[in-house]
Amino acid sequence: MAASEEHSALFPIFVLTIIALPLVPYTIVNLYLTFRKKTKTINCRCSACFHSGKYRKSIFKRISNFSTYSNLTVVLLWVVVALLALYIKHINTEHTGSLEFLIQKKAYRRLSILYHPDKNPDPEAHKYFVDYISKAYQALTDPVSRENFEKYGHPDGRQGLQMGIALPQFLLNIDGASGGILLLGIVGVCIILPLTIAVIYLSRSSKYTGNYVMHHTMYAYYHFMKPSLAPSKVMEVFIRAAEYMEIPVRRTDEESLQKLFVLVRSELNLDLRNIRQEQAKFWKQHPALVKSELLMQAHLTRETTALSPSLQRDLKKMLTLAPRLLEELMKMAIIPRTQQGHGWLRPATGVIELSQYNPGIFLSSNPAVPLSARKATGGSNEGYGPFLQLPHFSESIVKKIARKKVRSFQELREMKPQERAELLTQVAGFTANESQDVEMVLEMMPSISIDITCETEGEDGIQEGDIVTMQAWITLRRWNGVIRALPHAPYFPYDKEENFWLLLADPSSNDVWMSQKVNFMDEATAIIAASKAIEELKEGAGASAKEINASVKEAIDRVKAGSRLVMGKFQAPSEGNYNLISYCLCDSWIGCDAKSNIRLKVLKRSRAGTRNIAAADEVPSLEDGAEEEDEEGEDEYDEDYESEYSEDDEDVKGKDAKAAVANGSAHAGHHSGSDESDEN
């Protein structure tokens, strides 16, 4: 009897332990991740973002995080832990001094009569009388037993370790139905539940890559990506994601989609000369493709009021998936495709343009930012799109300020704050608050500079076949002095981090030699990576420990000041001069990209041996089973509008004259945008 009560008292302790083991570390990790960036990451504070809820969400972000189902579950589990702790404490209080103490104080006489062997022939009653009641009598009469009881809670003194089963009493009664319940519980918890979780996890994880993108999406992006893919055609590849194809197309959506088609028809790349045939061809596509493109264009042109509630939910789901899908689309553009292991420049820049204008960030706070905003207009040679990422701007405003000789977005950024405020209030007709909103967004826009070198380690000059080391420092500056910030995106429903892509490319051959994603949000990781890279580089060059420490310290200081180190290696091509361009492309802001020319001089091999020559099987090549690119498709490069990254041959030659060349090694540095010191 007492033993069973003791076992039952252990069960809450067992449950408390099982809950606390995963709950405590999970809570600590989540609290750390929530509060570690609380001071340095800021949201846009313009009125557009405030009214859209972005700024208010940033203020209450740590509180609102607890509104998710996972965090509510954590809170509920902590409540259960607290209740169990109180219950266990209550049980211990009741049993302080063990059962003998209660017998001594209240019921010794009654229980001695009830369980005395002369009164109760039950063997269990006899055992209970000997084990408990007799000892209680000793504690009452014997001074030594009483002292032992006060010190150790037992008349016989210190007791040895007692083992118990931490299960409730009804599970210990194996007779009858309880045995079946226990068996079912063991089978369910120990066999069926783990197998079910494993099957569900494996079936879901087998469909996705490490970036939570479906494998079918990767296959589609790889197959439809072409070297001559025009920026205006990237949308057609982007919407072929398997995640979008799985969004159901309902019969009730048809009417809304028909109305939507009329509103966004001008953005669908339809040939106006054969508009009827083009419309018929558009509607003959897979219904999921039609729906995905119309919803994306509706968001770009701010025509979402025509959407039904179900379509609005579908669009929100598409926007949730868009950032990582665009990242994978970018990877499919720069993945090694040629025998030399080069990617493709044209589709890569097209993906960046799409992410700047479109699903990646949706910058504008104005009625529309269609892809056609990239086209040059009479007043501006870069289109009015860059202006539309500023609050309260529209195409008519751009035309007004163009009359005052402000024809490019860069010219607007380079103006002094007072002159810009006068322009916006007097010419554009902005109020003082609207002008201040524009200033806030401009203060958050990044200015990027590139300092890049390419050389063969330990050798003078670059010879064909050498392994060339590229070292680039990417530096970010903002007028407000902040390094980590979330971009101005009032129409995008979620926070999105800024990402930059560094490309070392040859525009004349459409080849991307080197590429790497750069992020300024995680300073700690950047410090570790830069320190390790510099240390390995200096050790390979035979530097002393003092020189290595000095170089590592300098690298850490540069990272803390807003720079990121990018390093990579590539095999030098055959002898010749190569006019390369290093691009640093931002996926979140228009007009904030940087590029610099670098002339790479490769000498004929004169060094003995085959040092640094990569083996033939190490050269990246096209994946097995990949289809050969259609020559006719390559010749049909759509030039419906010119990308801002395109250059004519004369422009390239003119800039190449400014590139630094020294004994076969190359170095180039470039600052994008205006000099931010002039703006402050």
TrEMBL record:
It is a multi-pass membrane protein. Residues 86-153 form the J domain. It comes from the Eukaryota. Residues 614-680 are annotated as: Disordered. InterPro entries: C2_domain_sf, DnaJ_domain, Ig_E-set, J_dom_sf, Sec63-dom. One of its GO terms (molecular function) is protein transmembrane transporter activity. This is DnaJ protein ERDJ2. PROSITE patterns: DNAJ_2 (PS50076). The chain crosses the membrane at residues 12-33, 66-88, 181-202. Keywords: Chaperone, Endoplasmic reticulum, Membrane, Protein transport, Transmembrane, Transmembrane helix, Transport. GO terms for cellular component: Sec62/Sec63 complex. GO terms for biological process: post-translational protein targeting to endoplasmic reticulum membrane; SRP-dependent cotranslational protein targeting to membrane. It is found in: Endoplasmic reticulum membrane. Residues 620-651 have a biased composition (Acidic residues).
